[in-house]
Amino acid sequence: AVVSTQSGHYGRGRRESSKVEVLKERRKVAIQNAEKEWEGTVSGGNTYDNGMAFYSEVDGETLRLYGKGALDIIDKNSFTNSSSITQLYFKFIPYDVIVPYFSRLRVRFPSLQGLMFSFASISSLKQLNALSAVRRLDYLNISPEGNPVTNLSLWKYYILYRLSHFHLRKINDTDISMSDVILAEQLFSPLGETAVSYSDVSVLLSLLPDVRRKQILAYCEAAEQKKQVGIKTPEDRKKKKVPTATLR
Q: Which residue among 57, 76, 194, 216 sits deepest, i.e. has the most Cβ atoms within 10 Å of its Cβ?
């Protein structure tokens, strides 16, 4: 009888292990398919239709969504952990496909603090305007991977200006200082509505007087150098400490 019981436990253990391996493989394949579908969208190719191309999972307080099909979970009542989610992670989903969901995120996830976009095809400043529909955020992370907008030197300052009512604490895991906020206001405020209609930073800068443009560029360069070597400005030292929670 003892041998039979041990054998039964061993058999169940093998079955459970097999289930885990199957789930891991499904996850791997689904995410790979999501990547292929995203690549097809970027290149203008046909929509990927060879198997499931989306996957969603909860990792602690983060809801991770891969592939545009995973967005359906945002509206599903069957998802019962929404109140505990503080961060949303989007990968291999075109940003413009995510935008229509922004206005519903705060209601669906009342504890939401941050968003992260990876391989989302964010290429212009104008696209970032849509984030205002989220109504409030503490953190924002736009990965350089698959998001050309991060190649624009002033994209973070544009976000601070356009989403000034959010009072963002961090962008890409970097604390926001008062000097950052002031610079964003000085750079974009004189341009008014023009600032939200252009997607090219060089065009925006060209609208400023030469002296002002050179001052801003010099300040930005100095600010970046200070951050790289860990030098803090007086505004940084006065600034209250923020929680260490970050998007990964």
A: 216
Element (H, E) at 26: helix 2-43
CB burial class (10 A; 0-12, 13-18, 19+) of residue 206?
A: exposed
Q: Which long-range contacts (CB under 8 A, 24 or more apart) does 77-80 make?
A: none
- pTM value? 0.75
| Under 8 Å between Cβ of 138 and 164 | no
Across 34-176, where does the E strand assignment appear?
Answer: 55-59, 62-66, 87-91, 114-118, 139-142, 170-171, 174-175
Residue type at 167? H
**Cα–Cα separations (whole angstroms), residue 187 to 108, 184, 217, 236:** 35, 5, 10, 20
Degrees, nearest 5: CA angle 70-71-74: 120
SS3 call for 86: coil
Rounded Cα gap, residues 91 and 77, in angstroms: 22
pLDDT tens-digit readout, 21-39:
889 999 999 999 999 999 9
Nearest to 127 by CA among 110, 142, 109: 142
